[in-house]
Amino acid sequence: MLGNRKPTDFEILVYEIVRKVPLGTVTTYGRVTKRLGRGTARSVGTALSKNPFAPEVPCHRVVRADGSLGGFDGHTSGPRLQDKRRMLEEEGVTFLPDGRVAPACIRDAG
DNA sequence: CACCTGACATAAT
DNA sequence: AATTATGCCAGGT
Q: Residue A89: CA atoms inside 13 Å, Cβ hemisphere, count?
């Protein structure tokens, strides 16, 4: 099978941090890197796109720096992204009229 | 080893 | 404000 592989050390580190993001809040790809002291926002996104530990690792609580959603379940648009938004709304995260997460809900990782 | 791709971020247009 | 170009770095081929 092509999709099956062991998570790398870097990916494990990312999951360790994202695991701790509290209900009702979100953090950003960039803030995760900062907390990690390694990699870039982009490489964190790539790691999360392969997250094999959902929902134990709540990767839906990680969004872009400007509050836009980013991706979910390997997709950057479409119904998966809608799922991500619904999940966040369920948890109490509020959205602006333009579809971005309200800045007040964005917290530092860690 | 030499590319290539990707759930990003920021600066410049 | 919206779009484009560049830089970034980890992982796969």
A: 10
Token duo for residue A18: 């994202």
Query: Which tens digits make up the pLDDT trace of A10-41?
Result: 999 999 999 999 999 999 999 999 999 999 99
The answer for residues whose C-beta is within 8 angstroms of residue A55's C-beta and 6 or more apart is none
pTM for the model: 0.96
Report chain B positions within 7 A of protein CB atoms.
5-10
What is the Cα–Cα distance from A33 to A78, expressed in whole angstroms?
Answer: 26
Please tell me whether any atom of strand B lies within 7 Å of the Cβ of A52: no
- The overall average pLDDT reported for chain A is 96
In whole angstroms, give the CA distance from residue A109 to residue A87: 19
Q: Which tokens in the block code for residue A91?
A: 């948890």
